[in-house]
Amino acid sequence: MRSARPLPSTLQPRTLSTAICLALSLLGGTASLPLQAAEPASSVAAPSVPAGPLDQALNLFAEQAGITLSYSPQMVHGLRSPGVAEGESLDDGLRLLLAGTGLVAEKTASGYVVRLSQSDASYQLEPMTIKATLAPGAFEPVPGYFASNASSATKSDKPILETAQSISVVTAEQMADRKVDRVEDAVAYSAGVRVGSSGLDPRFDQINIRGFETTMSADFLDGLRQPYNGWLSIYGAEAFALERVEVLKGPASVLYGQISPGGMVNRVSKRPSVLAKNQVEIQGGSHDHRQGQFDVGGKLDEDGDVLFRTVGVYRDAQYDIEQLNNDVRLLAPSLSWQIDSATSLTLLAQYQERETAASPMLYQDGDHLTDFWQGDEYFDKLGQRQWTFGYEFEHAFNDSLSVQQNLRYGQLNTTNQYLQPNGTITNGVMERDAVGVYEDMDSLTSDTRLVNRFATGELQHTLLSGWDYTWFDSSVLYATGPAPSIDMGAPDYHQPVSKPTAALADQDSLTQRSGLYLQDQIELERWRLSVGVRRDWVHVRNSNNLTDTHTKTSDSATTYQLGALYLFDNGLAPYTSYAESFLPQSGSNASGPLKPTEGKQYEVGLKYQPPGTSAMFTASLYHLTQENVSTRDPVDPLNTVQTGEQVSRGLELEAVADLNERLSLTAGYSYNDPEVTKSNDGNEGKDPKDVPRHLVSLWLDYNLPSGLGFGGGARYTGSVYGNDMNTVKSEDYTLVDAVVRYDFGGGLDGVRVALNARNLFDKQYINCQAGFCYRGEARSLVTSLSYSW
């Protein structure tokens, strides 16, 4: 099957031999595989396509007919198709699909091209049109591993090949093949991304990009910030509820404001689409894993103007540490309404409950990792209840000007309880304290922008001007109390533990973040240029209920972004970019509240998409600096000053490809040379703690004609230092994942049974940092039975 994706007009179908050479060079091997480019299939009958937006109708027609179809996204913007009934010839089907739009489909040697009819020739766009085999856009289901478009770098549906930044996209099919539950596991095969820095800690995703933590500051859903109050109230995301996960690498404050210098992770929700398939699935596996999930949707009216989709997940499971639950209940309904040819509205809602527990500390018996856990099964838990509701609205005033607004409101309630050792162990009996963190948070996030398309001479502009706003109100009670001791040799995990009542912190906070941004995306023949600027404001009000004191802090910053990319005829696209970020800091020193840290990145890279293929190869070099890092005051040892600096210099290589209908792959390698370049703490010139120099990943997936399929992958994480002075080191490790499955045919078409293994060889590995050591996740097996239609 072929589907639709916008790509440069200069690309023409050809074989994948060059792509294979690059892929195998990246993987360190050689092979010869027969690959074919898409060819027109004029003998195929036209499929049935319902009436609806023209771009969606073209996508669905191309996918079901298995043809190559080319068009200009600007040309079809805002148009609607009357649809076509099954049984027509392919040419007649295309004519009926385009009826009333002023467009026609012409057959060429490389497929079909949508053009303006002769009567509308005066309106003909310049032949800079983006053409190639069309594929779903940045918000549509992707049939495979390769996604041609992404939205995170531009807040628009734009080809990755034309974006002067490094972007990784993890599609829903990749997540389904590897049976991942968490976003952390979904991005584990992306180049430049390190996960699991604190071992197995399922309370939140641990994601580092280019050596910088992103979990707390760069958590986004559908392009809107997921607020974080500095404690443990972090909105959770279930992988099955996502259409894709996009990893944008490097500073991105121009479009998103306060963010980690390493980059951002944007989770894209499943939403109504004519391309979406329905699915139900049940799972069972090791560690008492039991799960059921469904994803269903369709039309609510005859014309297909109103679509719905509902995703649900129920999981009752544990991790390899028996007392760590992995329980989830999720329901995510959504509805889209094409109000008229120029106006659309999508409603997105979600309710989720989950329960797990804190990361277990490491205890060793010689070189052997014990199964001892310092907690109590009835007391230790992270319990969260969250719900969100929002919308995405778009209205086109005319062919050149449109307004878009995204908004989401949410509530999150968190209970985090755990037992921790107090440092006393006598004859194998550990003394413990009880700790409780109880939080409530209400949040509102919005993003309103004008999109203006116009020309100045030879320059074609897409000018994005907008204002985003985040408000969240939170309360936190942090308390401690006594707890019973535990015999490490014969632990009793079911002892009575009283709720802690001695408050260490009791505070309320109100945070407001807003930013005005302007970004111009410019096309000049084969050049793709971008320039952006943003002004941010942050206001925080804290109330300490223990001391009855109130504080207010404010920060502001201006950030910039520049990018340039050139599209060659052969699918090569070299690029260069400069980007900035800033991230507010909590706390203060002798001079007052801490200033935000600032990030600056220079990047050069080369992207290659062999014409006519579903493959992308990216190589990038970056130099990333974080300034205003706190370090010891050389005059006053009890004070800190913000004169520290950390640098990451690195190389990233990534390949994502659907090499043919049976073989897909993802592969990545990253080398990072991190360094503390300014510090008064005695660690200048040393590696920052917990930043590996080498990351390698490879996943291959192959389907046999018989219906049997195999997949396997390996993830290598290099050694890391566990302290600032580089005297403690955690060794490198490699984890292997695998899947075997069978797709039934005939009367059971759409039925699949699969067996997935994570950490197949049960590799035991640890990571130590700041005086604590954590164990990694052990082997897990999941068997699944699903039906798709």
Automatic annotation (TrEMBL):
Coiled coil: none annotated. Residues 670-690 are annotated as: Disordered. It is found in: Cell outer membrane. SMART domains: STN. Keywords: Cell outer membrane, Ion transport, Iron, Iron transport, Membrane, Receptor, Signal, TonB box, Transmembrane, Transmembrane beta strand, Transport. It is a multi-pass membrane protein. Transmembrane segments: none annotated. Residues 675-690 have a biased composition (Basic and acidic residues). Residues 1-37 form the signal peptide. CDD domains: ligand_gated_channel. Residues 67-117 form the Secretin/TonB short N-terminal domain. Its main location: membrane. InterPro entries: Beta-barrel_TonB, Beta-barrel_TonB_sf, Plug_dom, Plug_dom_sf, Secretin/TonB_short_N, TonB-dep_rcpt-like, TonB_sidphr_rcpt. PANTHER family: FERRICHROME IRON RECEPTOR-RELATED (PTHR32552), FERRICHROME OUTER MEMBRANE TRANSPORTER_PHAGE RECEPTOR (PTHR32552:SF68). NCBIfam families: TonB-siderophor. Belongs to the TonB-dependent receptor family. This is Iron complex outermembrane recepter protein. It comes from Pseudomonas cuatrocienegasensis.
